[in-house]
Here is the input.
Amino acid sequence: MANLKSLAKDTAIYGMSSIIGRFLNYLLVPIYTAKLSAASGGYGVITNLYAYTALLLVILTYGMETTFFRYANKSNENPERVYSTILISVGFTSLLFIALVFLFLPQISGFMGYSDHPSYIWVMAMTVAIDSFQCIPFAYLRYKKRPIKFATLKLLFIVMNILLNVIYFIVLPAMYKSNPDIIGKIYDPTVGAGYAFYINLFCTGSITFCFFKELTGFKYVFDKALMKRMMTYSWPILVLGIAGILNQTADRILFPYIYKGSDMNMQLGIYGAASKIAMIMALITQAFRYAYEPFVFGKAKENDNRETYAKVMKYFVIFTLFAYLMVIGYMDILKYIIGRDYWDGLRVVPIVMIGTIMYGIYFNLSFWYKLIDKTIWGAYFSGIGCTVLIISNIIFVPRFGYMACAWSGVTGYGTSMLISYFVGQKMYRIDYPIAEMMKYVILCIILNIGMYFSNLYLSFIGAVGINTLLIIVFAAYLVKKDFPLASLPIIGKKFKK
Here is the structure.
């Protein structure tokens, strides 16, 4: 029981730090979209380069974060030697990456379309290299069960990042207008979107100094034989990670190469900004996973527990559909997260959210191949889905612009989801309550149609009022069918007969 309590406490700290961190990070969206007009393409540049960094982070850590946990907990391995070997390896590859970027900077910046701004490339290269290295001491904190320091450093980075962005995108530009000679010494208006990258590098580099204890006090040893064994273990994780991150970022990476319009950066910026609203649902569903998964696995027995996995899927679907309706219902409020220049992209929000739901279902379906230790299936499914997504983007983006990115995501995630389900039913059958879940899907579709016409024809107050009633309808059906108020903790006793 004590172990379960400790697990629940640590999970809560990790989960809340992640959720709060991502929420605070959303505060950057209104800053960027308010101060970088859609026409300038500045936010498009940010969207594009951050997609690259997400992919590079997976490549430069090459599965070593997970590998560390696996080998540090092996009885026949020395945890300090494992940690030291991985630190040296990831540190060396990160330095090598930076050196190669600087060596071929003109060619790389030209290929990526940033010949006029090569600083964007080397700054982000240094940032992602440092970030990759930091993944290992962060993993070490988790291994040593130090969630407080882990969460503190994560939140410290976010707070520093937001404060500096506020200063350089809001405060200093306003001061520059009246005192250009003085403020010009620390602020250059021509840098524009570049400040986002410089600030990120500064904050990431600063956090490194907070790992003094985790990077000292032990002998650095590189064990070649150990590293060989760990690489054998990590490469499938790398493949799965690359496929997974490409599913999320391929559209933003490919867009500049396949969309030839003069408004390329503007289109990408609009898509990236509007997608941030859709990602609110991803934030909410993440909260669900952090809250519900410890409960499920805490209750799980050593024997087969397929019924539990089926229930997890059912409630995950219900929860995500409810989140979907919340976002659609209050779109007239949420749209103020982004600047008015970007409102044209709001039409992608429902589509991106559908893709997010499919990805979440695919995540829950991953139980089956993890349970039978056949994780290579995950690489297959993610790889196929990623291929479908990329092909869809290549075919349709030149004609339909960023709308094709949204629908390609649905196609890719949907493919992975369906293949995983049908193969899983043959390999490890789980009787998911499909009929019960479909009732919620149909109800969600009906209510969504009602919200569409409400948002289209009613005033702001009228639309919000009607949409609230429609959300209550969904909640009432949920309470009646699957979540009676009497079952709730604390307040449930008030509803018991």
